[in-house]
Amino acid sequence: MKLVTPQINLKQFPTVILISLISIFILSCQHEKNPVENDEWEGSKKQTALLLYDFMKLEAQQLDKEAKLISVQSNKVDLDGCSAYWEYEFICPNKMNIIKIIRNYDAIIITDPAEIRDGASVIREQWMNSDFALKIAEENGGEKFRKRFQNVNISISLSEPCIPNSFPIWDVLYEKDNESFNIRINADSGRVLDGIW
What we know:
This protein is of the alpha+beta class. 27% of the residues lie in helices and 28% in strands. Strands 4-3-2-1-5-6-7-8 form an 8-stranded antiparallel beta sheet, with helices on one face. It is globular and about 50 Å long. The chain has one domain. The longest helix is centred in the N-terminal third of the chain and has 19 residues, at 13-31.
C-alpha cells in the first residue's frame, strides 16, 4: 500500500487560513445573542403595557422604594396591544414628586422629576393588559372606524380617577386626520364605559 500525502500550495495557504477564520467568525456571530434581548420583557422591540410594567416599576423603585404607578400611555400601539414606545408615570411619596420612565425601543429614559399634580391617583396593582383593551376596543367600534379610514393611528392610556370607588380605565383613541373614535374601558372588568364617533 502506497501512502499519499496531500500537496499543499504554500502560495494559497494564507488565503485558505483567512477564509477559514472569516467563516468561523461569521458562524460565531450568528449564535451570539445580545444579553439585553434575552431579558423577559425585551424579547422583541414591541411589548404590551403589563409585560413591561414590572421592569419599569423596578426602575422607579430604585429612585424611591415607595414609587407607585399613576399612568401608562403609548402614542402608537398596534392592534395586538403592543408598542415599542411606552411612558410610565410614578408618584414618589418619599421625594414628593412624579417621575416618568420612557421605553423607546431599546432605550430607557428617566425624565427630570416633576411636581405632584392635582388629581394624580395611584393605579391599583392589577389591571387588564393593553392587548385585551385593544381587543375590546376593536369589537366595540374600533374595527369599524379602521375600515372606514385607512392608516389609522391608535394611542392608548391607562389611569385611575381620583374619586371614591374608582377603578383603572383604558382610554383608546383611533385617529385619522380630523376624524377620531374614542372608547373608554374599565380595566378591571373589561366593560365599555363609552364610545363616541
